[in-house]
Amino acid sequence: MFLFLRPKYVKRAKLYIREAQKRVHYNRDRWSDVTVADFDAQIAKLKKAVREHDKAAVTEAEHALEQLCEVHCPTDKHAWISENTEVILVAIIVALGIRTFFLQPFTIPTSSMEPTLFGITGRETEEGPPNILMRILDFAWNGRTWHEEVALADETITEVKEVKRGGLRRVMTYTRVETDQGNTYWINETVNPVQQTFKLSAGVRLKKGQTFVRGFTDTGDHIFVDKVSYHFRKPRAGEVFVFDTRTLATIERRNNPSSNTQYYIKRLVAGPGDTLQVMPPQLLINGKIAEGTGYERVMRGTIENPVEGYRGYSNQTAGGFQFPLLGDPRAKFTVPERHYFAMGDNSYFSSDSRDWGAAPEENLMGTGFFVYWPFSRDRGGRWGLVR
After folding, report:
1. Does the predicted model carry a pTM greater than 0.90?
2. Are 269 and 343 in contact (CB under 8 A)?
3. How far apart are CA 258 and CA 378, in angstroms?
4. d(Cα 271, Cα 229) in Å, to the nearest integer?
């Protein structure tokens, strides 16, 4: 009680005691019994002097401990390296623990949840990239990367391919454009938005000096996934959730059965036992129009008249592909036990449970919690809580 009123020599002695005990604890297995006994004896003397408030005895005991430390705990001139390494390792372990059990970062790659959540998008521009400072600020705030490529010769594109670069780990994703003249162009973005934005594909002819890439791409939303909630409650219809695609016949796994498991983010529209029906633009759950903010936003618009980017729920893709499930306004589907039906808010441009079925409960990772980057709100979504 009232520790701040203790004399300075007592406070200092307490620190000596803690440090000495820590060194004995760390080195007990390496030191001889005699050395351990010497430390224990001096620690006991210092404790006794503190209890008796004997300042002279405290000073004497501290001096004795210092001499023991000089002999048995010599200072390592490289000690700062091990200390900093220990701090870094602890930080990494804590970060991995948070990622594994609590919050995991996740990036939105596609447009299936727009405009609730944005994937990677791009736009051609008349003007070239701004100066380097503005590009850095634009990237930091908006997640925007500017691109400009000029043809070095009269040539024809032979290949547009996504590749990894950046040392041994190959962590950076680029689009590599090859031509019949042996020229290679590197665009710092994944291949799909590059092809869609700048109309690049094999066979496209370029003229020397032609600016064939000019514009920008915006990164997909970076979100935190809450991995804790589902350990304490059942998933709720209407929330945005993340799940893995193992056991699901997604387009990627149909095209390449040996492909790695991917993670999808969709809206959980219905749970076990619910019966669904899609009558564009409406979604019916157990015979009633779905209620809740997430559903209602999607159903505000139609494919002909979108409202704030929402086009309603659909039986088919914008290209006319009819989904195997709920592919007709009269079709109904009842969600099996321990399964959850996933649909993208961008219903006409989403591969989801209408194509490959409901997601099993064991595939669920957690709920989409918070968009932490980019910070802008210029496209209606972006930074903030996921709704």
Report:
1. no
2. yes
3. 39
4. 16
Per-residue pLDDT of the chain (387 residues; tens, 9 = 90+): 444 556 888 888 888 888 888 888 888 888 888 888 888 898 899 888 888 888 888 888 888 888 888 887 765 555 556 556 656 766 666 666 655 567 788 888 888 999 999 998 899 999 999 999 999 999 999 999 999 999 999 999 999 999 987 654 456 889 999 999 999 999 999 999 999 999 999 999 999 999 999 999 999 899 999 998 998 999 999 999 999 998 898 888 887 777 777 899 999 999 999 999 999 999 999 999 999 999 999 999 999 999 999 999 999 999 999 999 999 999 999 999 999 999 999 999 999 999 999 999 999 999 998 999 998 866 555 788 888
The CATH 2.10.109.10 portion of the chain extends over: 222-385
Domain boundaries for CATH 1.20.1270 within the chain: 3-72
Q: For residue 72, what are the contacts with CB-CB under 8 A and spacing of at least 6? A: 27, 31, 35, 39
- β-strand partners of 123: 216
| Cα separations in angstroms, 232 against 28, 205, 359 | 43, 58, 19
Complete DSSP assignment for 18-33: HHHHHHHHHHTTTS-H
- Give domain 3-72's CATH number out of 3.30.70, 1.20.1270, 3.10.450, 1.10.3470: 1.20.1270
- What's the CATH code, domain 222-385? 2.10.109.10
Between CA 217 and CA 147 the distance in angstroms is: 8
The SS3 assignment for 67 reads helix
Beta strands in 67-143 (DSSP E): 103-107, 121-124
Closest to 180 (Cα-Cα) out of 202, 211, 195: 202
The label of the residue with tokens 């968009």 reads 371
- For residue 83 the two structure tokens come to 């200390």
* Termini Cα distance of the chain: 49
**Separation CA 187–CA 212 (nearest Å):** 12
Q: Are 200 and 194 in contact (CB under 8 A)?
A: yes
Specify the amino acid at residue 228: V
- Whether 278 contacts 314, CB under 8 Å: yes
